[in-house]
Amino acid sequence: MGTVRKTITLTMQQDSWIAAQISAGNYTNDSEYIRDLIRREQERSAETTAIRSALIEGETSGEPRRFDAATFKQRVRTSHG
User: Fold this and answer.
1) How confident is the model at residue 1 (pLDDT cuts 50, 70, 90)?
2) How far apart are the first and last CA of the chain?
3) What is the tens place of the pLDDT at every residue in 68-77?
4) Would you indicate the residue range of the signal peptide (predicted)?
5) pLDDT at position 18, please?
6) Pair 50, 65: CB distance under 8 Å
7) Cβ–Cβ under 8 Å, residues 21 and 27
8) Distance, CA of 42 to CA of 5 (rounded, Å)
């Protein structure tokens, strides 16, 4: 995978935070920290998209039916012993 060099601007507080994370041994350098933040945001975004899709699927799946807990429990017991 190729890399691209970027220039970013941080506040002193943000820079100090990154330096503290590196000093604590959580990251080896600034770039590793920034890449980790991006990976986490990508994961969070994918999770949010999946939740939204599930909600839309549920909303469009038809009329709701009454949930019968006793029938559900019996069905699970029968299926799983």
Assistant:
1) confident
2) 50
3) 999 999 999 9
4) none
5) 97
6) no
7) yes
8) 20
Q: In the numeric block, which tokens belong to residue 44?
A: 């969070």
Instruction: Name the helix (H) or strand (E) containing 16.
Output: helix 12-23
SS3 content of the chain, % helix, strand, coil (to 5): 65, 0, 35
Residue type (1 letter), 9: T
User: And the tokens for 6?
Assistant: 């970027």
Alpha-carbon gap, residue 40 to 47, rounded angstroms = 11
Answer whether 33's CB lies under 8 Å from 21's CB: yes
Encode pLDDT of 7-25 as tens digits.
999 999 999 999 999 999 9
Q: How far apart are CA 51 and CA 68, in angstroms?
A: 25
